[in-house]
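Subject: Predicted fold for histidine kinase, 485 residues

User T.R. writes:
Posting the sequence so we have a shared reference for the thread.
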Amino acid sequence: MIKKGIGRQIVMHYFIVVFVTLFMVELIFSLAIRMYYYDTIYNHMSNHTTWASDYFQKFVKLNADNDPHYFTEMLDAFELKDTELLILNRKGNVKASSNPFQDEKAIQTSDVLQAASGSVGKWIGRQPSTGEMVMAVSSPLQVRGENAYIVRYVTSLEAVNSKMMNLTLLSSAVCVAVLALVTLFSIGLANSIVKPINNIRAVSAQLAKGKFDTRIEGEYRYELGELASTLNYMAQEIVRSNQIKDDFISSISHELRTPLTGIKGWSETLTSGGFDPDETKIGMNIISKETDRLIGLVEEMLDFSKLQQNEMKLVIGRVKLQELLKEIMLNVWAKAEKKQIQIKLDDQMDKPITVIGDANRLKQVFLNLVDNAIKFSHENSWIHLVINPISAEQVQIEVVDSGIGISEENLSRVRDRFFQVNHQGGGTGLGLAISQQLVELHHGKMDIRSELGAGTTVSVTLPMPIHDPENRDEEVEQMNSEDQN
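User M.O. replies:
I've generated the structure tokens; pasting them so everyone works from the same file.
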């Protein structure tokens, strides 16, 4: 007995479909066999009655009712093997019969009534005297164009019905055998489906308990194979995410501890007193710098949280791209100067470029990209900011550096949250993830190309406003509306 579940459902569905199909086939087969045998018997008897009606003209005799030998001669002439022959008058009374035990009552079956009206009639039913199933075929015999007598052939259907019953039982046995084979096949099919499902379910239960090193073993085909691969991939990603989370916690703990240690140390030192104004000023500057660093870390995590929860709101307006990039260059100038890195704006346009977006968020994106380029560039190297219009509706900004580059293995993961190529470089590992999402909020695209030891190029594609001044405000309102939704 198959236990309750999807396996039983598969077997039951197969069983019901095949059972109904075989039942319909058996029913149609039985009706076809019955029609074939009955029609064959009827056609044989009907043809003989037609012949008898035509041949009867040789026996036409006036006042035949007064000649007892007349009907006997008709019986001898019209007899048909394995049938009972009756000669009736128009009222159904028996004038002569090949059966000596024939009841003398008038016969009023449908075949006699049809013959009396001038057509060949057929009747199937039980013989009143014997109770057996018979078929009767009657045809009129005409004298001078009028129906004078009726010739009626009656044959038993018991032998035919017995043969049809045997054929029906044989076909039913075949159907039962087919149904049994299909049931066994469906059980095997159900097991082939249910077994991997149970395996996948067991592994899923282990994953739900936190055993993320569990994997689905075996090669499954089609959708089950895809499901198994998806669950294995999910487990792998969970393990990776947990590792990234652990690395992030370790990194952020270090990032928070460093400025807090500096703030605490200088606060206690300054509190003890006895320092000259210059030393006090140095301590206060360190406290202010580390505080800004803490604020930056907290804001970065808050921004990421807002992006994950789709709560980031943009203040959309027209942003002058060249001015934005020049402002960023001024912001990072001091940091670049320490490493003797030259930052250059390579503008391919002869006129100012305007994009539609949030100036502060776009500044955050490019500031992060340039800051990363400085962080991972060698001393005495260069960084280029390239503005390149790629169509009338889009502009591409590239941040190109000649730094250490990114390996092919890390390049596909560098935009993942909490991922850091170099854990010693500091940071939360959220910068590129936030930048990616901010660019997408501006209906743009960010691509990264890099070669280890040769440098990195980050391309940001942003939409440009329609040149028709009358439509610019409408475009700003549309982006604001999309952002709110």
